[in-house]
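Same chain as my last thread, 267 residues:
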Amino acid sequence: MWNKIVWVSAVVLLLSSCGSKKKLLKGADLKTENELTIKDNTREAKKNSLRNLFLTNLNYSTFSGKAKMRLDLGKDNYDVTSTIRIEKDKRIWISISATLGIEVARVLITPDSVQILNKFQSEYMVKPFDYLYRFASPDLTFGNLQDLLLANLSVNLLSDIDQVNFKQDSLSVQLDGKLNELDFLYKLNNNNRPYQFRLAQLSKKQLLEANYGEYAMASGQEFPMLLKMIISDGRQEIKTEINFNKVTFNEPVEMPFSVSSRYKVIR
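reply #2:
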């Protein structure tokens, strides 16, 4: 059972900010008019809109968050805790603990590699970053993982302005489009922060959906304290709910990762 928790938790977090929760914002439920006005879908209008939207992305150099996480694997459900630390554009470090705070796994992701320590089974795996393409498209980047965890808009997904479409009503803005084989969708709340993100590769029946909620103000920025994800490959569906309870930005972070000689290397 613990072996399943370790590996599935790692995969979910790979593909998945401030002290205690402060004033909470209801995301899509806020009843004020959206700040962004979409006049039309001309190229110039879309460029201006995207320029404004990117200004709402979280501005940070480091991130550290502690969270409770629930995994739903069909008939099996698991409750674990996790610590997630990010050094922007360099490293994502994840620690996963089970009952009584016992650490069962540690993950280190860089733009070049993925390393996983299964501490419960004393196993170690190292793979190139493209190992993740087993679960997602080759268009997935290290930056996309950062953006997914922190609810930022991904610049690379929105880089082809001709493939991006805007829709707007009084409460939300929607962006959808395509990057090579990836179809994407963002739904933004009235403060232009995502409350839903969908990424699909239809040819492989792969789907990732992230729903963000319980936005809190942190260092003058909106951060979602709740992240719900669904990952599906057409055969199996994994659901996870991540509830952050402590988050900090722009403070020094430690990412210890050493492999004992007693660990078995998994090829």
